[in-house]
């Protein structure tokens, strides 16, 4: 039963690789039938668990309620998406975000729940570092708008460069990960090499200082909560 449960959880999560938009798209009928099969297995597993558990214990367990709600939401979204698809109305599968609930809340996933609770308990303690990082990102985005917004610069694709504040925030946020480096800097650098100082300051403060600080805070707090959980606190 445990192996079967893990297999269908893996199959359900793997559907994201084959559903639109996907790298390897499969027909909607195929993915929907596989998802319905997985949901039926999850419902059967939950029904079996209810048969061997006292009724008041079963309904007081939040994990069981979460699984039932996730099944209901997935079926509802699948039905709505299918009907809209018949009438050629474009929509999205919003219920995909609930699929990890099955991995977390089944009884066999005790270790995953412990890790998840450690992450959840860590979040409030890293809020201040995250807010400081966001403040820095927003301030640098505002400076970039003032520096480059009125100079009519263009990207390599011919698009306006740093004209929209929200787009600047997103571009600089991605730059923190160095994913769009140095492409996002080149239009400003081509206009004047002195503008490189702005991006050097941004990378030093946000990538090397804030990201290191963020990682240290997350690691220390996660390790602390994990020690508490394995030190005798009941995680179920």
UniProtKB/TrEMBL annotation:
GO cellular component: membrane
Protein name: TPC2 protein
Keyword presence, ATP-binding: no
Transmembrane feature ranges: 26-44, 65-84, 126-145, 165-182, 194-219
Keywords for the protein's UniProt record, in alphabetical order: Membrane, Signal, Transmembrane, Transmembrane helix
Lineage, top ranks: Eukaryota, Metazoa, Chordata, Craniata, Vertebrata
Domain Ion transport: 6-224
Domain of life of the native organism: Eukaryota
Main location: membrane
Entries under InterPro entries matching the protein: Ion_trans_dom
Secretion signal, residue range per the UniProt entry: 1-16
Subcellular location: Membrane
GO molecular function: monoatomic ion channel activity
